Amino acid sequence: MGISDEEWERLQKVIDWPGPDQEITQLNQSTSPVHSSFSIVGLKESYKVGEIISVTITARDHNKNLKRYGGDFFKAKLFNLKLKASVYGEVVDHRNGTYSVDFLLPWEGQAQVFVRLEHSSEVVQILKKYRESSFPRAHYHGYFGSGPSKTRITEVVECNLKWGADGSWRKRNCCCEYKDIKTGTVWQCERPKTLSCDKLVHHSYGRLENPLNLFEKQLFAAWVVIQNEFQNDCRCVKIKL
C-alpha cells in the first residue's frame, strides 16, 4: 500500500472504536446524556487568542454510574453566535468513560463550549454490527414472463444485490445473476421454478426489513427521546487579544 508497518498500525489504532466490555441487557446500562457532564480544565477568568482550552467529558449511565469503557460518539464545539464563528475540537477517547477535547481559541470576545452526545457506545455497536453484516435491508420482487398473452407464464420471486461476506444474500447456485458491465454490480433473483433466468422482465421494490431485535429497538426508541437533553447549558469563556 506504500506505507510502513508502523504507519499502518498507527492508522488502525486511529480508526479503532472501543465498545462495551460486557453484554448490555438493560436500557439503564447505556450512556445517559442527562447524567453525563463536561467541565473546562483549569478555568480562568480570561484567555488570550491562540491559547488552548481543555475540556473533560465524563460519561455516566442512567443509574449515574461512571462508564467503565469508551466508544461514545461525542461532538464538542467552541462557538460565538454574535460572530457566527465556531470550531470543533477533536474528542480523545480514554476508554474508561472519560474523554478530553482541546480547542484553539481563534477570536477575540466571548466563546461558548457545547458538547453533544450524538450516539451512545451501545448504539454505535448496533450500527457497526449491521453496517458490517450482509443482512439485506431492502427486498425487491423480480418478474419473469414467457409466452403469448393468453397462455403467458409468469412468476414473481425475491431479488436483491449480491453482497455479504460470501458474496451472496442467498445460498450459492440458488439464483439467477445479472451483472452490470460498467459498475460490476451483480443483481440476484431467486431461480424461478419453471422459467429460465433470461426471462426476467422487470423488478420492483418489495419491502423494507428492520434488522433490529426487540432490545435494540427499545434502545433506539429511548435514544430518540433523550438525545437532545445533554448539557444545553453552555460553558462560557472570555478571550482577549
TrEMBL record:
Pfam family, one: Neurexophilin
SUPFAM superfamilies in alphabetical order: E set domains
Domain of life: Eukaryota
GO biological process, any: nervous system development
Residues spanning the signal sequence: none
Name assigned to this protein: NXPE family member 3-like
